[in-house]
């Protein structure tokens, strides 16, 4: 993912955050900037969790990076929903 550069992070993060917000039913509350932030933070979170399990996240490629961002963004939105006290995210 580092090979993509900052523009790649923004594009992949934005797409992952947007799709995650649709999956988690929070899309109406989020704008494009928040989708990008959620996707990038989700990618960091997903990469950190996978690294704990010994998965080589650096050499996974674009599709693996996108799936990692998407899963991490969904996890992040779920945790935020729990913290905010909503019964359904």
Q: Any overview of this molecule?
A:
The chain is mainly α and 89 residues long. The protein has one domain. 72% of the residues lie in helices and 0% in strands. It has 3 helices and no strands. The chain has helices at 5-23, 32-52, 61-84. α1 crosses α3 (61-84) and α2 packs across α3. The protein is globular. The N and C termini lie far apart (29 Å). It is found in: Cell membrane. This is GlsB/YeaQ/YmgE family stress response membrane protein. One of its GO terms (cellular component) is plasma membrane. InterPro entries: Transgly_assoc. Pfam families: Transgly_assoc.
Name its key features.
89 residues; mainly alpha
Q: What is the count of β-strands?
A: 0
Mean pLDDT: 84
Helix content, binned percent: over 70%
Distance, first to last CA: 29 Å
How much beta, percentage-wise? under 5%
Class by SSE composition:
mainly alpha
| C-alpha-based Rg, rounded | 13 Å
How many separate domains make up the residues?
Answer: 1
Number of helices: 3
Major beta sheet summary: none
- Give me the strand/helix succession: HHH
Membrane topology: Multi-pass membrane protein
Protein name: GlsB/YeaQ/YmgE family stress response membrane protein
InterPro entries: Transgly_assoc
Family: Belongs to the UPF0410 family.
């Amino acid at each position: 993912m580092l090979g993509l550069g900052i523009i790649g992070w923004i594009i992949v993060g934005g797409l992952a955050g947007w799709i995650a917000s649709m999956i988690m039913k929070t899309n109406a509350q989020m704008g494009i900037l928040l989708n990008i932030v959620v996707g990038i933070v989700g990618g960091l979170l997903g990469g950190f969790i996978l690294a704990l399990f010994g998965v080589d996240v650096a050499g996974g490629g674009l599709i693996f990076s996108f799936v990692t961002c998407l899963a991490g963004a969904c996890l992040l939105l779920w945790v935020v929903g729990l913290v905010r006290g909503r019964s359904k995210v």
